[in-house]
Amino acid sequence: MTARFPRGATSIAGLATFGVGEATGLSALDIAGGAALAAVRDAGMALRDVDALFCCLPDDMLGGLALAEYLGLQPRFTDSNRTGGSAFMSHMATAAAMLTCGMIDVALIAYGSNQRTGGGKLSTPAKSNRWDAPYRPLFPLSSYALAAARHMHEFGTTREQLAAVAVAARGWANGNPEAFAKGPLSIEDCLSSRMISTPITVRDCCLVTDGGAAIVVTRTDRAKDGPKPPVPVLASAAATWWHSVAQTTDLTTTAAAESGPRAYEMAGVRPSNVGCVQLYDAFTINTVLFLEDLDFCAKGDGGPFVESGAIGPGGTLPVNTNGGGLSCCHPGMYGLFAIVEAARQLRGEAANQIPDIHVALAHGNGGTLSSQATVILGTADTL
Questions:
Q1: Is the pLDDT of residue 292 over 60?
Q2: Residue 328 pLDDT class (50, 70, 90 cuts)
Q3: How far is residue 215's CA from residue 375's CA, in Å, rounded to a whole number?
Q4: Where is the Thiolase C-terminal domain (predicted)?
Q5: What is the overall mean pLDDT for the chain?
Q6: What is the pLDDT of residues 175-232, one digit of tens each?
Q7: pLDDT digits (tens, 9 = 90+) for 16-73
Q8: Which phi and psi angles does 35 have, rounded to 5°?
Q9: What is the DSSP string of 195-258?
Q10: 8 Å CB contact between 120 and 257
Q11: Sheet with 231-240: strands ordered across
């Protein structure tokens, strides 16, 4: 089946983050609401303009209903689809289709979490499924450790190369005032940090922070009337191959190998056209896997690619230019923050602004490398 998408028919008109790092005294709903209000203002709109709400909250399976009530909205459509951190890229596909066919006019996509000040550790409603449970894994970390170990076995990937991902992320974070973790970080710092699930150490793991993010998506002709440059949505594609990694036949390849090519086809671009890449880096192995599966380097070459310095400041492929989940923020689900950073780059207002950028890719991961979703955004001159 030929992939179809309303390329450029919809655009991000507003965006915001809120409470990134520590938001003491605020609930997940407060944080999501703060981000939502800021994004609507950024779009030059009022809450009454919003007629579709897409939301995930880490502590409320009916978060879309809760946020609608919190904001005083009575939307035509509410969606709380949960695939983990990839959910927000999938929300964009649904919103684009509904906007294009006229079912809705303005979509608000929002997320918020207080997992740091509310508990201080990863907060997720998911847990190991029945295939994994007998082995008592650390959820979700042990699944990513398996993928990292297999990648090392098959391709000779080293812990030093995984550490290079964390070091690159910190390099970007040091230039981003919003980033939670700053300061020097070396390869040796990573290698000597506490081992949690071999071969993954503390430095291979994402942060535990608070934070919220939101975007407003509407038809491009309307977005052009807003106060900020519209960011056209060129593509959104998703793929799910498994829930538990115990069900895969190849731990070194994810469904990004499907969502990525479909997104490129929809957008009419190639990896070489992409000016920056925002990846869901819950663990350092994620970045390696997704760079390979999204065709920025060949399968098995991810280790040497990141080790070369290509993805850090001054490199040939800017990756996670806000510091990513490893050094900027990771409030349970990071996907929407990747979208916001990609859009900020295309607006020309990112903290670590990449010059002359026209196409950006944001990729989300859900579960234990289970759900993958890819969004490609552009500037007005890509239409």
A1: yes
A2: very high
A3: 14
A4: 238-379
A5: 94
A6: 999 999 999 999 999 999 999 999 999 999 999 999 999 999 999 999 999 999 999 9
A7: 999 999 999 999 999 999 999 999 999 999 999 999 999 988 877 888 899 999 999 9
A8: -65, -40
A9: EEETTEEGGGB----EEEEEEEEEEHHHHTTSSS--EEEEEEEEEE--SSGGG-S-TT--THHH
A10: no
A11: 77-79, 52-56, 106-113, 210-219, 10-21, 231-240, 371-378, 359-366, 276-279
**Domain count of the chain?**
1
Predicted confidence at residue 1, as pLDDT, reads 53
Q: Is pLDDT above 80 for 124? A: no
143 within a domain of the structure (yes/no) = no
pLDDT interval class at 137 (50, 70, 90): confident
Q: How many other CB atoms are there within 10 angstroms of residue 373's CB atom?
A: 32
Q: Among residues 165, 162, 175, which one has the least CA distance to residue 317? A: 165
Query: Range of 284's domain?
Result: 10-120+207-382
Closest by CA to 253, choosing from 285, 291, 287, 293, is 293
**What value, to the nearest 5°, has the Cα angle with vertex 270 and ends 1 and 163?**
110
Up-side HSE of residue 264: CA atoms within 13 Å toward CB? 15
Instruction: Specify which residues 10 forms β-bridges with.
Output: 219
Asked if residue 114 is part of any domain, the answer here is: yes
Give domain status of residue 192, yes or no. Answer: no
DSSP H or E run through 87: helix 87-100
Is 372 a domain residue? yes
Average pLDDT, integer, range 99-107: 98
Contact assessment for residue 284 and residue 324, using Cβ atoms and an 8 Å cutoff: no
Q: Tell me, what CATH number does 365's domain have? A: 3.40.47.10
Residue with token string 């310095």: 309
What is d(CA 67, CA 110) in angstroms, rounded to the nearest whole number? 9
Report which residue type is found at 10: T
- The token pair at 206 is 């994402």
